[in-house]
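Quick one:
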Amino acid sequence: MTTDYQISIQDKTKIFGGLQLAASHYSESCQCEMRFSIYLPPMEKGKKVPVLYWLSGLTCSDENFLIKAGAQRYAAGHGIAIVCPDTSPRGDNVPDDPENSWDMGSGAGFYVNATQAPWSTHYHMYDYIVSELPQIIQQHFPVTPDCQSIAGHSMGGHGAITIALRNPGRYRSVSAFAPICAPTHCPWGQKAFGSYLGDDQETWHAYDACALIPQSSEKLLLLVDQGDADCFLKEQLMPERLEAICKEFDYPLTLRYQPGYDHSYYFIATFIGEHFDHHAKALKSIL
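Output:
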């Protein structure tokens, strides 16, 4: 049975002939009020459009990508909606990191379903992205059912790749900027997974792209851009692990090291148009 979701529109702005909106709603998955932003490209009345889900990185909200990346220009040109969820649950009753660190708790949901207290009540970002949010978008906005792709940056790149791998047939394409490729092997991932999922590292593999590639029953072309001047490249991101596992299991990866680029939205803004070309090709091939 499909839930009848109620949403509240918080903001509405015209940009590149389309509409940029921000909305909030109560989330059953996260047991709190959640916020998302959506860009609707120019479209004829009664027409529906494909949708790209964008997952942002550590410390971000639903706003960062749509304010900084210049993505609406390309979304308008291709006729694709963009949905940007928040990166974690938030609120007075939602736990945050007791040490106020920026890589845990608020702004750092890691797109997992937490199983450990105090996170397990609210931190169900995996279910929210995969199941609840798409239902809300399809109920309230003119998007084409089953015509969706997913992308993200850093923590969100990790989320986009793992969600696509775990849900064959759901997404038409996937891409990432500077993703956390092997979270079970890097400090960010080990800290988050240990807190959200507990000490049993076998449970961590469900959220690690390098552990999921060998099991993949679908081979979507994966586009990854990585700046070679990224200060997190060696310790946290580890694209070489993803490259090696994709080569071993014949998974179609296009990994591009971009000379001189860092981890910032300047990097994303430079290449986001090419990512929209990648997704538009896949989305429009089924319309």
